[in-house]
């Protein structure tokens, strides 16, 4: 199965580590990518990667660090091209074992083969894993000696898509997606059962966007930030009403995300807005925020007045008419 465009955590199959790229100076060219201990459900900006397909190349992707903004790059392989008036230096990516894999900048619209990776499903039917082959060198992303120690580097190493040797798991990786597309979110919303009026409206700001789904504890953390002004805020009918709470929370999530991730564009941080009428008092409006469950199967509502998630739709006092993303 081909990977979808999205934001992923990339774990090694054999040991509980994930590709990591953080710390001071992480946006500098040439900084080595390593692994760090990681639980599957743990949210860590340093371990989030935007995987995007390369136009015109089957199963080929760029892999970009959200925290640094640089692209996974195979080092080495320098060669020179001579022109009558100048010498141009190019880097094709070395095919030697133990070649460092680093972060590197990429010009808009450029094609740099050593920053492109053929990512294909493992031939092992028992594992939902992938191997990553560099487009330029033909070598694979390899966890050095299968190490589980924090800071263990990853290298380019010879291999193939078929090998199942004793140490082949060094080159096997799982991709856990942490984002959803506009179309996928719409399908989840329409497929859930809510108190809906006869013709609910769904609108997505991005026609074909990718949305990072935050864990619920981060929503609670954002709500508590002094900058939101929501903590201790009291509803004032019409002056600062239900919709104002929900709009403020949506803006707070966007501002928090822009501050946390100031190097990469091309994705949004998900915070939905639901508008409707009170079922108890139909003349009054109601508004809630919502997100998607961790398993990407259900809508989970959030009350921005008291910083609480509502998991049962029958406890929501809203005959929903509009969903905005």
Automatic annotation (TrEMBL):
It comes from Armillaria borealis. Residues 46-157 form the Ricin B lectin domain. This is Agglutinin C-terminal domain-containing protein. The lineage of its organism: Eukaryota, Fungi, Dikarya, Basidiomycota, Agaricomycotina. Residues 211-309 form the Agglutinin C-terminal domain. Transmembrane segments: none annotated. Coiled coil: none annotated. InterPro entries: Agglutinin_C, Papain-like_cys_pep_sf, Ricin_B-like_lectins, Ricin_B_lectin.
